[in-house]
Amino acid sequence: MRLVLLLIVLLLTGCALTAFHPSGASAQSSSKLEEIQKQLEKSQKELKEANARILDLIRKPLSRFLNESPPRCDSENLRKAVANALNVVEIIEARKIETDPEEQVILGATIVDVADAARKAGCNKEARAIYDYVVGVFVGSGYAALRQRAEIGIQDLGTR
Questions:
Q1: Which of 59, 112, 132, 142 has the highest Cβ tally under 10 A?
Q2: What is the pLDDT of residues 79-96, one digit of tens each?
Q3: Residues 56, 85: contact at Cβ < 8 Å?
Q4: Quick one: how far is CA 3 from the chain centroid?
Q5: In 10-141, where do the E strands start and end?
Q6: Rounded to an integer, what distance in angstroms lies between the CA atom of residue 104 and that of residue 108?
Q7: CB atoms inside a 10 Å sphere around CB 41
Q8: Given this model, what pLDDT does residue 10 score?
Q9: Neighbours of 60 (CB within 10 A)
Q10: Burial zone of 109 (CB within 10 Å; 0-12 exposed, 13-18 middle, 19+ buried)
Q11: What are the tens digits of pLDDT across the range 105-136?
């Protein structure tokens, strides 16, 4: 009896393994997997494009601010760069959009770029507010480099 039971279990296990083995899969299953893979790749591409557009909301006014001569602390471009940066972070924190950790680091670096530009233009109040925001919001070991950049910026403000 035990031997028969053992043979049945081995037979069923073999059948199950054959079903999961690529040679056991039908052509239809293979094409379905290829279709799903293509959809996944398309979605990933669309997500990267969407993330690039989000960063452009910060980078474009920042670029215009950097091209002002001379840059002014009351610049509309600086105001837009700062407001858009903070709004994007708030939206991510509220989980209204999802980003992966790598994208969040890129976003944080872009925000520190805004603070650095404000500091270099002599807009210490604006720079300090952004640096403090980065230190307070980007917590965790994955953001240590961002916080360090912000803390260095804060120290540079103190030497002016």
A1: 112
A2: 999 999 888 888 877 776
A3: no
A4: 57
A5: none
A6: 6
A7: 10
A8: 42
A9: 14
A10: middle
A11: 999 999 999 999 999 999 999 999 999 999 99
Cα gap 158→18, rounded to integer Å: 69
**In whole angstroms, what is the distance from residue 57 CA to residue 117 CA?**
16
State residue 22's pLDDT score. Answer: 53
104 is written with which tokens?
């969040």
Q: What is the DSSP letter of 157?
A: H
- Angle in degrees, CA 56, 91, 128, rounded to 5: 70
Amino acid identity of residue 112, one-letter, is V
**Inter-axis angle of helices 124-137 and 76-93, to 10 degrees?**
10
Contacts with 55 (C-beta within 8 Å, 6 or more apart), sequence order = 106, 107, 110
Whole-angstrom Cα distance, residue 120 to residue 124?
A: 8
The predicted-structure confidence for 18-50, as pLDDT tens digits, reads as follows 455 555 555 567 788 888 888 888 888 888 888
107 CB burial (10 A radius; 0-12, 13-18, 19+): buried
Q: What percent of the chain has pLDDT over 90?
A: 46
